[in-house]
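Entry for the shared binder. Reason: the reviewer on the internal report wants the predicted structure included alongside the sequence.
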Amino acid sequence: MEKSSGPSEGFDKTRAFVTLAGLSLIWGTSFILIKKGLEGFSPTQVACLRLSISTLAFVPMLVLYRKRMDWSKWPYLLIVGLTGSGIPAFLFSNAQVHISSAMAGMLNSLTPLFTFLLGVLFFNARFGMSKLAGVFLGLAGAVLLILLGNEGGFDGKTAYGLLIILAAVCYATSTNVIGKHLRDMSSILISSASFGMIGVPLMIYLLGATDFLHRMTESPQAWESLGYIVILSLVGTVAATAIFFRLIQETSPVFSSTVAYLMPLVALIWGLLDGEALSWLHLGGMALILSGVYLSRR
């Protein structure tokens, strides 16, 4: 039976929408923080730092609640760790070398569409013509944004927009897995275990196989960028991830994924404040995506 696309019975709707708004503000800001992190570090280092700092924040919780952890669900936790945080962190940092932060935020709004598509294909979600129309409309908006080329904030390398789309697919996968297989597990335990499984190897790689320590001692810009990444990790990853996982459990995957409605607006505002270009075609592409998201939820 299909889960509702809105808050589950007995859940406070006001609380649900306030939570969505807060997450939109936090995650909409994450794109500009990634951009600032890239001023002092390589894309790989930004991703490794983000995940390593987040892991360090979650480890104490994992130790504290280790006896409550159901490790029989480790495959699902690993999938959530990889698709909900690990892989997207690398995709975003590499893409945003060539894509503006506002553009990244707009393309990321495809996440609800992919949440629905994966739900239909693998998680027994209900299918309807309006939902199908929404998917095509949203994809048309994404194509428009990518085809803008230099005017679209892609620095002439439109293929990098596909990395953001792949990240949206990853987020959709994680959201559906949590809604289907981890609904009864604490959001803190999900976050702690999933980050613990992917973060430790990346921490070792960051310190042993990159020039991170050299940059920290030789580049003044590295310290400023590190500050932005710490904020990104602790607020945009640690706190927001735990809140989001809880929201999925108490509502539904599709409802929770609509956090992408407001995220691009926040990303656009930050991009404009940082001097990024914006045209009516940008707004047109984003309008198509959000219209598609709306139709897919009807």
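Summary line for the report: Residues 13-296 form one domain.
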